[in-house]
């Protein structure tokens, strides 16, 4: 975690929004990290406070071994992540799509952190639930090797629907913008620089 998030330091927040970025690519030199830094720069320019959680730097077991039937103690990094999510008004998720879905570490992060009593609560004698993270918004910055039209029309955009509806939406977090950067593999350096500038612009328009 960066920007004082792990140490507990609190930057001066003023009138800006409290933004938490969660970077779901385990590769430290990935395009996702460049996009995240650009977004953060744009947001800070407008007076917002930005903190980052880089999943590749955390230490935790991504497997929820017994589901919800037994309690699995959270590692210190995950407890801190929960505190940062509570702190945030706006969340930014930056991650690649692998095999049409989320990277395993990001999915494991959600499995371990978005627990009953923290992110949602089932109602007694009801099929409904309470969304405990309501009031927060999110931006998604997603990289793909697949062309956007193919991912949407042929595959049905499964990763996008999972994030917006069955993960964030389930907990009450409203996805405000979903920006895809694609296709990455054949992209030129000029194209990638354009994407990075686009991410900075998005950050300046939180």
TrEMBL record:
Any GO molecular function: NAD(P)H dehydrogenase (quinone) activity
Domain Flavodoxin-like fold: 17-185
Taxonomy, superkingdom: Bacteria
Cited SUPFAM superfamilies: Flavoproteins
Pfam family, one: Flavodoxin_2
Statement: the UniProt record of this protein carries the keyword Oxidoreductase: yes
Keywords: Oxidoreductase
Keyword Endoplasmic reticulum: no
Gene Ontology annotations for the cellular component aspect, listed alphabetically: cytosol
InterPro entries the UniProt entry points to: Flavodoxin_fold (IPR003680), Flavoprotein-like_sf (IPR029039), NAD(P)H_dehydrogenase_qn (IPR051545)
Family: Belongs to the NAD(P)H dehydrogenase (quinone) family.
Name the record gives this protein: NAD(P)H dehydrogenase (Quinone)
């Amino acid at each position: 975690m960066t920007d004082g998030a792990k140490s507990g330091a609190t930057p001066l927040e003023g009138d800006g929004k409290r933004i938490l970025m969660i970077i779901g690519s385990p590769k430290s030199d990935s395009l996702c990290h460049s996009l995240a830094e650009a977004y953060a720069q744009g947001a800070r320019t407008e007076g917002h406070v930005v903190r980052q959680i880089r999943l590749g730097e955390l230490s935790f077991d991504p497997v929820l071994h017994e589901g919800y039937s037994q309690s699995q103690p959270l590692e210190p990094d995950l407890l801190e992540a929960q505190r940062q999510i509570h702190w945030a008004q706006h969340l930014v998720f930056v991650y690649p799509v692998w095999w049409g879905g989320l990277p395993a570490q990001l999915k494991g992060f959600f499995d371990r952190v978005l627990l009953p009593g923290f992110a949602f609560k089932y109602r007694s004698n009801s099929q409904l639930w309470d969304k405990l993270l309501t009031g927060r918004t999110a931006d998604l910055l997603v990289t793909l090797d697949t062309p956007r039209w193919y991912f949407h029309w042929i595959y049905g955009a499964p990763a996008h629907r999972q994030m917006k509806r069955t993960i964030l939406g389930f907990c009450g977090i409203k996805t405000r913008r979903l920006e895809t950067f694609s296709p990455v593999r054949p992209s030129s350096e000029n194209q990638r620089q354009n994407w990075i500038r686009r991410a900075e612009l998005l950050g300046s328009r939180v």
